[in-house]
Amino acid sequence: MATETLKQFTRLPQSTYIDALRFLPPLSALDRYVVVASFNSDSDETSIGIHALTSTDTPTLTLQSSFTPSSRTSSLKVAQKSLNPIIAASTVAGFLHILFPNPIDASFESKVPVPEKRLYLGSITGLDLQENGSACVSVGEDGRVNLISVGDSGLDYRQIFDSKGLVSYTAAQWASPFEFATGGLGNLLQWWDQRRPGGPVTQFKGNWANVASSGIVHSIDIHPSRKHTCVAGGSYGSVFAWDVRRPHQSIVLSGIDNSETTTCLSESDVWEVQYDTFMSASDHAKLSTTGVLPVMICSEDGILAVLKQGEEPTELLAENCAINCFDIDQQNPSFRMGVYCFIDEGVAYNDRYGVIGLFSMANGS
């Protein structure tokens, strides 16, 4: 395995547990903001805050505004609608909030619950916003799939599917204005097309090993240039790509596989996967039109790494605690941000790639 060590971290202590974070689409050419969902275990208080990020020699995160959701945040996504940012946040109590930050001062201009009741009988376990912010798909542990349309005249909610508990969903990702993918228990991936209502149009269940078939898909990503292919991360260190045009096949990038040629980078849960948009010219030259693009992952056993099809993984970080999630600034992909949860909360910054990370630092180190 290749190792690309990230050093010289600047650590900034935080007072709350970080549940999720995302780069906010730029409010201006000079400003960069981070949306952080946090939880105070002492007071049971939850918050979603917009923080100004300075990536100087002494980086800082400065709170600009905050919103109190109905319960603890379970998923967080951002997009840009009519040149203004939009935030979607779901909760463990089954509520969903659509937030509209003010482009002038980063305050929350509008906060809309969708609808003013619970959408699910349990936690909303995954959601995604379309790139233009016009629609949000959400899934729940109770097997429901819902769609919220975000228009100039307001919000429109409708239920797309209800499995009545036969399927438990954990992740969702848009592929096009009409298509999206969902993930769930049993390493299950399903592909949906709103033009063909009634249920998923095709599905794939990871069955390359008996133990993996009982796993869970925690995260999905779909690249705009490969809209028919999704990459998924889940239990037992599994990371695989699935092309909907070949519904019964998958490409295992890491984890349990019947093939001895597949590297098992991690044996614990892979919490997040994202296509790594920070690629060198040589990386672009080696890519084929059918190959799997490089994928960044983080895991329960503290691994942050980049996976490339047919190559050894590149390990960026190896910590003694879970790395729960990360984000890559799509406006400037050389800036990478992650959340790493130890015992005590904190923020860390690294200047190797302009990496910004939210850490929980053990023993106050």
Can you walk me through this structure?
With 365 residues, the chain is mainly β. Helices cover 2% and strands 52% of the residues. It contains one helix and 30 strands. Strands 1-26-25-24-23 form a five-stranded mixed β-sheet, with no helix packed on it. The protein has a five-stranded mixed β-sheet with strand order 2-29-30-28-27, with no helix packed on it. Strands 3-4-5-6 form a four-stranded antiparallel β-sheet, with no helix packed on it. β11 and β12 form a beta hairpin. It is globular, with a radius of gyration of 19 Å. The relative contact order is 0.13.
Rg, rounded, reads 19 Å
Number of helices: 1
C-alpha termini separation: 27 Å
Whole-number average pLDDT? 81
Low-confidence stretches: 351-355, 357-365
Question: What are the SSEs and their pairings?
Answer:
Blueprint: E1 2-3, E2 10-13, E3 17-24, E4 33-40, E5 45-54, E6 60-67, E7 73-81, E8 84-91, E9 96-101, E10 108-114, E11 124-129, E12 135-140, E13 144-151, E14 154-162, E15 169-174, E16 179-184, E17 188-193, E18 202-205, E19 217-222, E20 229-234, E21 239-243, E22 251-254, E23 270-275, H1 281-286, E24 295-299, E25 303-307, E26 314-318, E27 322-328, E28 336-341, E29 344-350, E30 355-361
Parallel strand pairs: 1-26, 28-30
Antiparallel strand pairs: 2-29, 3-4, 4-5, 5-6, 7-8, 8-9, 9-10, 11-12, 12-13, 13-14, 15-16, 16-17, 17-18, 19-20, 20-21, 21-22, 23-24, 24-25, 25-26, 27-28, 29-30
GO cellular component, one term: nuclear pore outer ring
Subcellular location: Nucleus
Keywords: Nucleus, Repeat, WD repeat
